[in-house]
Amino acid sequence: MKIYRHEKGIIMSGRAWEVREKLKEYGKIYPTLQEWIQAELTIEQRPCQLVKQKPGDTNN
């Protein structure tokens, strides 16, 4: 699974079940997509980042 985060949004690619699980996980932390984007930009101050994960890895 890959998650691309940038200042205008987030792109997730991977198997459908991986994307659904990751959305559920982030949905518990951030009620809205806008809050997720702002939190990521505040923490890392990077315009774009690629995060690679192993299938079944929920530590991110």
UniProtKB/TrEMBL annotation:
InterPro entries: MciZ. It comes from the Bacteria. It comes from Bacillus weihaiensis. This is Z-ring formation inhibitor MciZ.
